[in-house]
Design brief:
The protein has five helices and five strands. It is α+β, with helices and mostly antiparallel strands. It has a domain at 27-114: Beta-lactamase Inhibitory Protein, Chain:B, domain 1 (2-Layer Sandwich). Strands 1, 2, 3, 4 and 5 form a five-stranded antiparallel beta sheet that branches. 8% of the residues are buried.
């Protein structure tokens, strides 16, 4: 009876461990931004469509030009993460829409990655200053506390 019980518990443990291992290896796919498809870009005709038409067909832009408000950027990225490893970029696309002074589309198309460098947040805010170890922090306080001056005692 104990052998059958031991085998049943072992089988349950093995099933639970293999299920956890399988779930840990399943990739996590994340979509960031607005990845446009080719058919969406073909709907916009330069010289015909306006800003409001672009908003209706493509949605809000991810970013506008910093120094030129007549350029809209649609930036999209798909990443895949396996377990504890860093995410791997599977698909990335940057589309620029340029307008003239009247708000009519002049150009729409993909932006070459070498022309535009889009900074990506790593979800960590960099801090500047000294990085001290615990011992440096403890020993650094030695001698910082001054005894009360003789004037304060009176």
């Amino acid at each position: 009876m104990t052998i059958a019980k031991f085998t049943k518990n072992s089988l349950l443990t093995l099933c639970a461990a293999s299920t956890l291992a399988l779930v840990a290896c399943t990739p996590t796919v994340a979509q960031r931004g607005n990845t446009l498809e080719d058919y969406q870009i073909k709907e916009i005709a330069p010289g015909v469509h306006t800003r409001s038409d672009v908003l209706k067909l493509l949605g809000s832009p991810t970013s506008q030009g910093t120094f030129d408000e007549h350029i809209w950027y649609y930036i999209g990225r798909t990443t895949e993460k396996h377990g504890i490893f860093d995410p791997e970029v599977k698909k990335e696309r940057v589309v620029a829409v340029t307008f003239n002074e009247e708000g009519v589309v002049q150009y729409i198309g993909d932006v070459n990655g070498e022309k535009v460098n889009v900074p990506v947040s790593d979800d960590a805010t960099p801090t500047h200053g000294n990085e001290l170890t615990v011992m440096q922090q403890l020993l650094g306080n030695i001698g910082r506390f001054n005894p009360k001056s003789t004037d304060e005692k009176k």
